[in-house]
Amino acid sequence: MSTETRYQRLALSLQDECKQAGRNPEEVTLLAVSKTVDIDEVACAISAGARAFGENRPDELVRKQAAFPEVEWHFIGNIQSRRIPDIVKSATLIHSVAKEEHLEKINRAAQECNKVQQVLIEVNVSGEQSKSGFEPADVWPLICRNAALPCVDIVGLMTMAPQGDIEAIQETFAGLAALQNELQEKAREQALDVAIRELSMGMTEDWPYAIPYGATIIRVGRAIFDEAFE
Ligand SMILES: *Cc1c(COP(=O)(O)O)cnc(C)c1O
What we know:
This protein is an alpha/beta fold.
């Protein structure tokens, strides 16, 4: 099976899951995570209809964005301060802000490129020690402080579910959706001009569980690019 076929098959499954959940498939971006493949495979996915790609290394983000500037490039990896200028130069959306100090550095880098950088806040919903991300209770104060930074726009939340246990996966996705609701309500009450509209959740193993809970971006790598996925 080719990358084209795997991408198209996944796009159809996504449409099915959206219908079953009573959602409009156009609300959900299928982010093709191309971190394990080269330019040729990216080209295959584009010819199959892919319009947004995810990378977790700054060098690969910069290289692939330069090769295919007509599609969106999202950064989904661990952020190192010194690489923030490269990430900001190339990323439409940064999914993985997990430290407050990075917001200020992103703001500065974005100011230099004359852009407003859209970001998601990574949230450790499951509370696992091994996972990065903010605790849910820390996100609202962070959003309030970020309002002072003119070139960073927090547009949503990202999380990773624990592996394996379906109940724990569903609890994690439900938890991120509940936090989104809570934040939207607080923003309304306090008339703060922020729109927490994106929920980035779901990967190859668990994305179908994320759709009923309101995922607006699923990040899928292996189901598109791994030949073992038939
Ligand atoms: C690699 C990666 C993905 C994609 O994982 P697959 O299991 O290949 O679908 C999604 N999100 C993040 C943050 C990743 O690093």
